[in-house]
Structures are given as structure tokens and as C-alpha cells.
Amino acid sequence: MGSEKEDYSSGPEDAFTSANVIASTAIKPQHRPLHDASVTLEEYMYYAEKTRAEEDSVAATAPPTTLMDMVFPSRGTSRRIEGKQPSEKHEGQKSNLNDNKLLITDLEWTNASRALRSASAAACFYLITTDILGPFGVGFSIGTMGWGEGIGLFTLFGLCAGGSGWILWKAFLDVDSYEFPVKNYGDLGFRIWGPWLRYTINFLQALQLMISVGILVISNGLSISQVSKFHLCYIVCCLIWAIVGFFTGQIRTLNKLGFLANFAVVLNLLIMFISMGVMAHSEPNYAAAQAGSAGAALGGLSVTPSANGTYPPIQRYGGIPPSTNGFTGSINGLMNGVYAYGGAQLFVEFMAELQRPRDFLKAMWGAQFFIYACYMSYGSFVYFYQGQYANQLAYQGLSPYAWQTVCNILAVISGIIAATLYGNIGIKVIYNNVLIEMFKAPPLTSTGGKILWAVIVPIYWVVAFVFAAAIPDFFGLTSVIAAICLVQFTYTFPAFIGLGLFVQKNAMRGEEAFDPATGAVHHRDSGVKRWIRGFFGRFWWLNVILLVYTLGSLALSGLGAYAAIEGLIDAFKSPQINSFTCTSPLEG
Fold it and tell me: Cβ–Cβ contacts within 10 Å for residue 30, how many?
């Protein structure tokens, strides 16, 4: 980086301090407390540069990736550098990296970070695809917006989501290192903007992931109750999947989830192909369309049968279809398009376990293009053949019960894999930011950490299940939370983090780089003056774009929350029941 090395020289708590010279005795990374606000951005970037250089040198001598490695990603091995080994007594003392830090050598500290990085780019591709790929609501969304707006907005949101991924990747490479590893989304926000953003991100992420696990448990319960023709008690249908989560949740590393993620992608493609074949040779599920179709979202008139029981013909529109409930239905369809790419909340966690984080970009763009192709081809097919009858879950719009059941079963298996992924990240957010930081829990790589993980997993799944099952109209509440949380992770936070990153890097230009011998960082100015200089520095237009992107994302979140709350109000006008009953909501 040299003299152009970028910096948030002031430390995360206040990126630009009032002091023009920040000097400190050089404190080794392992001797600092977790989330030390006195660490300057220059120091983060200095060690990040060293780490990237080491990763690049290792990658240069690595064997080429084969086709089998991409289709079936190997388990991978964490890399360590051999050196002088600690004594047995010393080894026992450092079992908890939060205590006895003065006894930990530089090599031990960085090896502890290297040990967590074992995922391959292929595994990351499948994890991203499993996280984001959800094509079954695209036909519904296009049905509420029409061909033009539907395809255009899905394309726009896909490009924006990819741009957000690039911003997160760029920020991660600039501030992550073996000495100061970025373990989650909150860590990234902390290093750019300070503790307040870390707390905000961690709270929203923990809430969103908990709800995601809960809704997948409830969704799978609904599918099983439908498959059993309501002969199996509904609460038991849901509880089954919470118990399954006790076992699948024992997978600790994302690399080990790579094969399951691969399998989930195959299952989703299989559901797509089956449902497309059936739709092309059968009528829509008219009964299911009364509550969950695009026509129902637009007021229901276009899916309501006439007095003699005849249903309206399939209708398609180039623009926004007519609606009897204002624009709420179209907004709900629009928000489905926004949520369709809502996987960036896990991107930082994926990068944190990659052997070479630079590889994330090709995995992310490959996944995004694959997902977009699935969305457009499948969504367009569903809308063409089912029109306003396109269901929120497209395979639920199949009229033959046998094929609907096949798709339900496949979706249940895919859903439990996705829930395992969400639970894995959700538990890590709690483990790293609560248990380790506040209660000095052992690291996950230690024996104690593995035992504690095994205990926490069933507790987490039980809480997610109870939380989801106890709330009437849980799916309505989920829409509100998605608007408040999911939009921020995919659009608002990346743009805001990128804005802070590029402004501060501009302000660093021409200043001395971080001195690892003294820990000194020199600023030529501070405060508002530094912010203004950084904002209008090189590539000022990029900062303007990121500012508009941030504000636009916040407005989009508000619009989605409005539509979701309106839908929630309508839902509560009729009696609601929770999931602690034997009667399935689908039974009527």
C-alpha cells in the first residue's frame, strides 16, 4: 500500500479523532482486549496487507482446482505455520485465547486464526447459493408487477446485491488479518464506524437468523401436515424439525456444510424442473390461489370464480396489473424481489472461514449469476403458465396432489439444510459476541468450545421453535422483520460501510503509514474537516453514489415495512391461532 495506504486512522470508536498525532507504545495484537476501540485503522490495514501477501504466496504454490473439487468440495484443511511449540503447561494456559494473553506468542496467535479458515471457493459458492436461491416466489412477484417491472426490478436488485457483496469483500480484505481476524458482520462495522454499528448489526443479525430458523421449522411443519393430509398433529409436525436441528446443528464449520449446501442446490433445481413440467401440462391450483397467489395479493378479483363456479382465464400483463387494494399488493411483490437476494448478512461469515478470502468474489458473482438465471427462467415460466394464479410458493400452485407432495418433501429437506446454515451463523454470532466476550467462553477450536457448542445447539433450536410457534400470524411478523433487518444487511449496511471505508481511505492519502515498531499514526487534520476532505477526495463521485444508495435503501426498508404492517393489520382482523395446536392452519 505504501504511502497510499488507506486508513481509518482514528480507531473505530471515532474514526477521526481530535488529535493530529496518535502515538502509542506498540502493543501486540494478542495483548489487546477483544474489540479494542484504540486500534487504529492503519494498524488493521498493516496486518491485513501482510495476511493477503501470505495467502497469495500460498495460493501460488497450491495445486490447480479440478472439476471434482468444484462439484464436490473437499473438506479442506486449516493451515498452520510450524514453529517452536509451547510447553505442556503453556498449552493448557492458552486454551482460552481471551485469558493469559501475555503468554501467547505471535505464531500461536496467528495459527489460532489460520485454524478457522478451511473452506474452499467451491464450498462458498454452494453456501451462497443455498442461502439466497429461493426461486419459488419469483412468479408470484412478476404476477404482482407485470413482465416489464418484474423482470426489470429483479435485474436491478440482483446487480445491487452483487455490488453490495463487492463492497463487503473490499472492506474485508482491507481490515481482516490473522492478527485481527474479522469473524462476523458486526466486526466489519466496528472497524469502519465503531461500537455502535457493531451492536446494531449483531442485534439485528441475531434476530433475523433466529426468525429464519423458526420460520423454516414452521414451514416444514406446514408441508408435513399437508402431506399427511392433516392426520398428524400439527405441533408434532413442527417439533420434528426442531429435533432434527439438534443433530444437523452440530456441524460447526461452514466447510463441512459445503456438501449439504451442494445437495440443497440440487434439490431446489429438481423442484424447479418437476414443477415446470407439471405446470405445462395441468391447470393451476385454483383453491390455493384464493389466499396465496398474485391475484389474491392484488385484491382477489382476478382469481375469484363466477356464480357458476368458473374461474377467470389466465391473465398476463406487460406493466403493473390492475388492483382493488391500491398499490400494497405490488409493493409486496416488489419486496419479494428485494428479499430474493437477501443473503449478504452471511457474506462476512463466509469470508471469515475461506482459506483465501480473495476467492470470495468469484464465488459470489458466480452464485449471483446462477441465481439470477434461475430466477428469471423459472419465474417467467411460472408467470407464463399460471399468470395471476402464480402462488407464493410456486409448487403449492400445482393441482395434482401427488406432484405437489413430491415437491413438498424435497422442499422440506432443502429447508432443513438452509435452517442449519442460518442456525450455524446465528449461534456463532451469539457465541463470539456474548459468550466469548462477556463470559470468557473457550474458542470453538478447543475441546471445551466443541462441548459448549454441542450444548448450545439444541437450546438455540428450541428457542427458535418456541418463538416462531407462539406468535399468531408469524409469517406476517416475518415480513416486517425482513423489511427492517434483511434490507439493511443486503443494501444499507454495505453501502454505509463502503462510504465510511472510502472516505477514510481518501483522507489518509499522503500521510505516513502505520509504524509497527512504535504504533504511531500521524493525521494531518481531524474531525469534520477530515471527513469533508475525505468525501470530496479522489473518486468523490463514488462517495456520492454510496450516500444515495444508503439513503435509498433506508427508504426502501420503510416502504417494505409499511406494506408488511398493512398486511399484518389485515391478517389480525380475523381470528389467529398459534402453532401449539393439533389443527394445521392449512386444514381450515
Answer: 18
10 Å CB burial of residue 277 (0-12, 13-18, 19+) is exposed
**Distances from the Cα of 180 to the Cαs of 1, 100, 227, 257, in angstroms?**
18, 17, 50, 25
Per-residue model confidence as pLDDT tens digits over 13-45: 344 444 455 444 578 888 888 888 889 888 999
Q: Can you list the positions of beta strands (E) in 417-531?
A: 521-522
**Chain-centroid distance, C-alpha 294:** 26
The span from the CA of 192 to the CA of 534, in Å, is 14
Helix axes 138-175, 41-60, angle to 10 degrees: 100
Q: What is the DSSP letter of 367?
A: H
Q: Residue holding cell 437450546?
A: 459
Cβ proximity of 168 and 344 under 8 Å? yes
- Each residue's pLDDT tens digit, 261-295: 888 999 999 999 999 999 999 999 998 888 778 88
Alpha helices in 285-400 (DSSP H): 286-292, 294-297, 328-340, 347-352, 360-386
Q: Which residues lie closer than 8 Å to 518 by C-beta, 6 or more apart? A: 23, 24, 25, 26
Cβ atoms of 185 and 348 within 8 Å: the answer is yes
Q: With contact defined as beta carbons under 8 Å apart, do 461 and 424 qualify? A: no
User: Beta-carbon neighbour count of residue 91 at 10 Å?
Assistant: 11
pTM of the model: 0.84
Which residues, at least 6 apart from 554, have a Cβ–Cβ distance to it below 8 Å? 492
Is the pLDDT score of 126 beyond 80?
Answer: yes
- In the chain, what are the domain boundaries? 66-76+95-502+534-587
Distance (Å, rounded) from C-alpha 384 to C-alpha 551?
A: 35
Round to whole Å and give the CA distance between 567 and 480: 9
Fold category of 66-76+95-502+534-587 in CATH: Amino acid/polyamine transporter I (1.20.1740)
pLDDT 10s digits, 46-77: 999 999 999 888 877 766 665 555 565 655 55
Helix (H, G, I), strand (E, B) or coil at 554: helix
CA distances 250 to 239, 288, 328, 458, 490, Å, are 18, 37, 42, 9, 27
Rounded CA-CA distance 385/449 in Å is 52
Residues in contact with 395: Cβ distance below 8 Å, sequence separation at least 6, in sequence order: 136, 271, 274, 275, 404, 407, 408, 411
